[in-house]
GntR family transcriptional regulator
Amino acid sequence: MDQIRINVSGNSTAQQVYNWLHGLILRGVLEPGARLSETEIAQQAGVSRQPVREAFIRLTATGLAEVRPQRGTFIGRISVKAVLSARLIREAVESDLIRMLSANAGTDVLNRLEQQLVAQRKASKAQDVETFITLDDQFHHDLAVAAGHGDVWDVLEGLKSQMNRLRHITARVFDHQKLIEQHEAIVESLHRGDGEAAEQAMRSHLREVLNDLPAITKAKPEFFTD
């Protein structure tokens, strides 16, 4: 498990512990159903149990952890409903954004997106899952910024924690090439200034999770809840 380094001049200790655990949960390092120990986490972080307890409370409030009476705190299972809701919201928002961008995507934007495709292919070839997912997020973030609505991406980011957990699982077992090809289709449509094609390419891309979800929930039923 990744180690944490507490920065005494940075955010509060509880915030840093929360950010650390939050990242481990989203990346699947801490799997659904795993038990969280205040004592063990505190020892690993080199802090008292109080900031760890505060981090646990925040994780529980966001649905990433759950308290089981007389048993302790456990990593929450992935909510299928939350995944589907986040996907629906993303499709509605990002389809509008890509159509807006298609009307005025400049050379600088297109060149940057092409460079990102190159980086995605490199990460896929190296089977570097963490880098690939980071690049995928960056791709969508940059599309929102280029459309003039980077703040919208920040809102989406706060809604899709359960979806991100699923992405880390699927990225380990499914071929990245299909996702890259979908990104390529989006960029090609932007090159042509074809808003309708760009929108359809984005919708197809964001609906891919609907194809992946049944197989993953069947293979790992213990990871999911309705």
